[in-house]
Design a protein that fits this description.
The protein is an alpha/beta fold. It has nine helices and twelve strands. The protein has a domain of about 130 residues: Leucine-rich repeat, LRR (right-handed beta-alpha superhelix), CATH 3.80.10.10. The longest helix is centred in the last third of the chain and has 10 residues.
Length: about 290
Amino acid sequence: MVVKVAFNGSLVSDEKLSAIMCFPTLKALDFHKSGITDAQLAEISKLPSLEELILNDTGTGDEGIRRLAASRSIRILLVERTKISDAALAHLSSMWQLERLDLEGDGIGDEPLGHLADLPNLTSLDLDRCAISDAGLTQLAGISTLTHLRLSHTRITDEGLAALERLKSLEYLTLEHCAISDAGMAHLAEIPTLTGLILSGTRVTDNGLAPLRSLKSLDFLAVDGCAISDAGVTHLCDMNSLQIVALTGTSVTSAGVASLRSMNPKLEGDWPEGTVPDDEDDPDDPE
């Protein structure tokens, strides 16, 4: 029984498409870097058991999404670095069964994000490298079901983070290389459900870590590439829920790492170079 087919960048001929349609039990299709056309997506939408569709790095456009929107089985849709625009989100809003939607690198702006509030089952949304600003976060605040949200390399600021306080189910948030600073951390501290927070390459400093101590469920924190020193590490020492921390590219010293690990011996991390003895066992090393 065939449940998954991957094209691995090859051309999708009409003959191949006809063969695919002969597998009613097909659950996953990967067209990454393939020649799938908008017209062919109309046929793909008819597969009754299809749950996962990958269209990354294809020529998929708004018309293709309009045709695909007839599907009532697709739960996971990855449409990264394609030709879709704001218009595609209006079509996606009818796919009520969607649980995960990845739009990284697409030509998506702020206003159409409001359409995604019509998706009652959406829990994971990737908007990395989209043209999203603070106005877009106001639209996203209406998606109360979100648990995972990726906003790295976007134009959001500290002020915009206030809207995320309304996402009461949010567990994982990435803000890598956004123009946010210590001022925005007070807003993130108002999301008690957070378990993972990526702040790599932002303007967060030692002072910005203090508000994060209120996040009692946070187990993964990445501040690599930020202006963090041993003074900032002191704010992390009493965060007993932390399991993994990323501190590479910071000013944290061996003393800072030692103090952090003494308070939390099970803590794993990406430590600044030279702060952990070379002969210490790597927690990811099977040896």
